[in-house]
């Protein structure tokens, strides 16, 4: 069922998502978000030393409640960034020692979000917050649903703090870019 | 003669044709190369455009931003040479696509394909090492004018070079033809000149022959006329001489009688001693005896005169024969028979040192005076004998000759009988040969020949409607031909 829904999502124009019943719409939305998560990886210039070895996995970590069901696993299956295969990890809390490259913060509480962001400050980790979360500044990428399409906003200053350089192509695609200063 | 080849090796037609072919080949290769290079360049351009689009559209592909993708596609489609552009995401779904009106949308197929003249290029849209989708770009068919323009430079150069070479070849060919023409004309001129020279020689020979024949005619007429009148005079003289002789012998018996009687009286008178009358008788007898002696002497003179007259008559007869004014008694005869009849006479005439060989092969009849023919043959035999003082061989041959219409002067088939008398004697120089038939021309010592032999034969042969010719070479002998027309009916005719 989920596989079929995913196939439909990829085949049909995004505008149709609105016409779907709420529950399937939400699951389709997260299916899209799940693919977006790993697709962000090549648009980020990862600082040297991000990976310990050539075949070290590229960790996508979900902190807190997981809205993706098994979409994430399905999305990254068979994909890699260069020589680094994607790996999905789930955790209740996150710290610098977790060594995640992309971190999706699933908390609903603003203080928990802030806490997680604080923990990842200065780490080479791309922090992502969901569109359904309260508007907490400080994450690098924030998913936004605009006219039935999953889009995102980027905080380039936050990226710079985490020593990440976001590709201008991605910045161009972002609904909003928050620059430093 | 082979026409000369003008100019250097470079200008030979074969070289020129080879050059033209080589040039065409090189030109074609160059055009193909240029065309290929143009196509490769076009492919490079389109690939570069596809790469540019792929590089810029990656984010839009990755994050399914159709609007952004469409903007990129439209931006690329500003290039009028592009026919269609399409962007597909990684699983192979169309994200954005555009094509010119009337053109088909791009359907992904394997790699790069050229349909018709259009060029379809696919490049993967990569972000770093990650493939996020694919970009398809189709270039419009290059207009034929553009393709033509691309190769026009080389084509023009090739065409001009070929045209120039062809022109050169043509000019060379025309020159060669003109040369050959001139050569042929020169040859024709030479031939014409040779013909002219031959004709002039022929003409001069003919004129010489005409002159000769006119001379002979004149001489013949003159001598014939003289001979005729002279013969009449001779006859008068001969008649007078006959009468004179008759008169001389007239009264001979009376004188004899008187001498007898006188001698008797004188014998009687001697017994009675002489008287006056006896002395008269004695003197009369002496007169008669003296007269007889004188008559005998006159008779001897008469014989000499008669002999001279006979010789003169013979001469006039020969002259008349030469002048073709002798009376001929012609009858149909086979020359072989005629020669057979006089064979003993001929053998006798030539003597023991000379052999006569007979090759008689004529079956046809001719019309001629038999006596004159015999005379002519005898004359020729004697001439031949005289040409061989140390002996030799004479060949008498006869043959029937048919002259074809093409070769005969009248254009009709002519049958002839040829009699040939050939010897192995001293022969004649050309000068002597050409004058041999002239009357009174002789190479024999004075008193040995009259110089009328051949001219008499000539006169006779011409009078018999025949031809006489002499072929001779110094040291090789002489052969004389008498050619008479064939006589079909065995009739006899009088020539006068």
Q: What characteristics describe this protein?
A:
heterodimer, A: 181 residues, alpha/beta, Rossmann fold, eight-stranded mixed sheet, two-stranded antiparallel ribbon, B: 496 residues, alpha+beta, Beta-Lactamase, Heat Shock Protein 90, four-stranded antiparallel sheet, rod-shaped
Describe the structure.
- The complex is a heterodimer of chains A (181) and B (496).
- Chain A is α/β, with parallel strands linked by helices and 181 residues long.
- Chain A starts with a helix and ends with a strand.
- Chain A has an 8-stranded mixed beta sheet with strand order 3-4-2-5-6-7-8-10, sandwiched between helices. A two-stranded antiparallel ribbon of chain A has the order 1-9.
- Chain A has 6 helices and 10 strands.
- Chain A is globular and about 40 Å long.
- Residues 1-22 of chain A have low confidence and may be disordered.
- Chain A has one domain: Rossmann fold (3-Layer(aba) Sandwich).
- In chain A, a hairpin with a 2-residue loop joins strand 3 (80-81) and strand 4 (84-91).
- With 496 residues, chain B is α+β, with helices and mostly antiparallel strands.
- Among the domains of chain B are: 9-142, 2-Layer Sandwich (Beta-Lactamase), CATH 3.30.450; 327-495, 2-Layer Sandwich (Heat Shock Protein 90).
- In chain B, the strands form 2 sheets. In chain B, strands 5, 6, 7, 8, 9, 10, 11 and 12 form an 8-stranded mixed beta sheet that branches.
- The radius of gyration of chain B is 62 Å and the shape is rod-shaped.
- In chain B, 24% of the residues are buried.
- The mean pLDDT of chain B is 84.
- Chain A binds chain B through residues 10-11, 13-14, 32, 36, 39, 41-43, 79, 81-82, 149-152, 167, 169-170, 172-173, and chain B through 56, 58-60, 62-66, 68, 89, 91, 93, 127-130, 132.
DSSP helix fraction of chain B: 55-70%
- By CATH, the superfamily of chain A comes out as Response regulator
- The total tally of domains of chain A equals 1
CATH classification class of the domain at 327-495 in chain B: Alpha Beta
Largest interface: A-B, 22 and 18 residues
Spatial gap, N to C terminus of chain A: 47 Å
Mean pLDDT of chain B: 84
Q: What is the overall pLDDT average of chain A?
A: 82
Low-confidence stretches of chain A: 1-22
CATH architecture tag of the domain at 327-495 in chain B: 2-Layer Sandwich
Can you tell me the CATH topology of the domain at 327-495 in chain B?
Heat Shock Protein 90
Main sheet of chain A, how many strands, which sense, barrel?
A: 8 strands, mixed
Radius of gyration of chain A: 16 Å
Distance between the termini of chain B: 61 Å
Net shape of chain B? rod-shaped
CATH class of chain A: Alpha Beta
Quaternary organisation of the protein chains: heterodimer
Query: What is the total tally of β strands of chain B?
Result: 12
Number of helices of chain B: 9
């Amino acid at each position: 069922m989920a596989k079929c829904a995913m196939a439909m999502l990829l085949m049909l124009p995004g505008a149709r998502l609105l016409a779907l019943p709420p529950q399937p719409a939400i699951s389709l939305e997260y299916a899209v978000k799940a693919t977006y998560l790993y697709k962000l990886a090549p648009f980020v210039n990862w600082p040297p030393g991000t990976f310990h070895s050539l075949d070290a996995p590229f960790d996508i970590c979900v902190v807190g409640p997981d809205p993706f069901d098994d979409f994430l696993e399905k999305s990254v299956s068979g994909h890699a960034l260069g020589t680094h295969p994607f790996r999905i990890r789930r955790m209740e809390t996150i710290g610098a020692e977790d060594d995640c490259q992309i971190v999706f913060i699933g908390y609903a509480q603003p203080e928990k979000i802030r806490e997680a962001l604080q923990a990842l400050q200065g780490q080479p980790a791309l922090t992502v917050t969901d569109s359904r979360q309260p508007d907490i500044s400080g994450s690098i990428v924030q998913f936004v649903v605009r006219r039935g399409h999953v889009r995102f906003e980027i905080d380039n200053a936050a990226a710079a703090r985490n020593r990440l350089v976001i590709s201008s192509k991605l910045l161009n695609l972002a609904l909003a870019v928050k620059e430093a200063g | 003669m082979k026409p000369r080849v003008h100019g250097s090796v470079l200008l030979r037609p074969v070289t020129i044709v080879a050059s033209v072919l080589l040039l065409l080949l090189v030109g074609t290769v160059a055009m193909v190369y240029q065309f290929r290079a143009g196509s490769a360049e076009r492919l490079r351009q389109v690939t570069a455009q596809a790469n540019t689009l792929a590089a810029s559209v990656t984010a839009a592909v990755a994050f399914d931003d159709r609007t952004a993708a469409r903007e990129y596609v439209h931006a690329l489609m500003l290039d009028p040479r592009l026919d269609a552009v399409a962007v597909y995401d990684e699983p192979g779904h169309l994200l954005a696509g555009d094509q010119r009106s009337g053109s088909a949308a791009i359907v992904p197929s394997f790699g790069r394909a050229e349909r018709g003249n259009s060029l379809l290029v696919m490049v993967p849209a990569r972000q770093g090492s990650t493939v996020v989708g694919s970009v398809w770009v189709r270039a419009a068919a290059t207009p034929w004018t553009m393709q033509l323009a691309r190769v026009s430079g080389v084509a023009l150069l090739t065409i001009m070079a070929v045209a120039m070479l062809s022109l050169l070849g043509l000019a060379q060919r025309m020159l060669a033809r003109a040369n050959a023409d001139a050569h042929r004309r020169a040859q024709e001129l030479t031939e014409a000149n040779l013909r002219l020279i031959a004709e002039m020689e022929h003409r001069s020979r003919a004129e010489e022959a005409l002159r000769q024949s006119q001379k002979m005619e004149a001489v013949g007429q003159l001598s014939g006329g003289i001979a005729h009148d002279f013969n009449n005079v001779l006859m008068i003289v001969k008649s007078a001489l006959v009468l004179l002789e008759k008169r001389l012998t007239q009264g001979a018996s009376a004188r004899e009688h008187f001498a007898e009687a006188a001698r008797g009286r004188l014998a009687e008178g001697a017994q009675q001693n002489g008287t006056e009358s006896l002395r008269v008788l004695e003197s009369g007898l002496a007169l008669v005896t003296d007269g007889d002696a004188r008559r005998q002497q006159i008779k001897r003179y008469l014989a000499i005169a008669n002999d001279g007259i006979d010789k003169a008559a013979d001469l006039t007869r020969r002259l008349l024969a030469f002048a073709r004014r002798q009376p001929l008694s012609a009858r149909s005869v086979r020359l072989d028979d005629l020669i057979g009849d006089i064979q003993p006479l001929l053998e006798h005439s030539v003597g023991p040192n000379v052999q006569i060989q007979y090759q008689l092969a004529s079956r046809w009849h001719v019309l001629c005076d038999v006596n004159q023919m015999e005379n002519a043959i005898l004359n020729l035999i004697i001439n031949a004998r005289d040409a061989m003082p140390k002996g030799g061989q004479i060949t008498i041959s006869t043959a029937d000759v048919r002259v074809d219409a093409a070769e005969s002067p009248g254009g009709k088939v002519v049958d002839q009988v040829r009699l040939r008398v050939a010897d192995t004697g001293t022969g004649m120089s050309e000068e002597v040969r050409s004058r041999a038939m002239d009357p009174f021309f002789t190479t024999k010592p004075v008193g040995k020949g009259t110089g009328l032999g051949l001219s008499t034969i000539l006169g006779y042969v011409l009078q018999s409607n025949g031809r006489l010719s002499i072929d001779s070479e110094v040291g090789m002998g002489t052969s004389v031909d008498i050619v008479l027309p064939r006589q079909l009916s065995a009739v006899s005719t009088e020539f006068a």
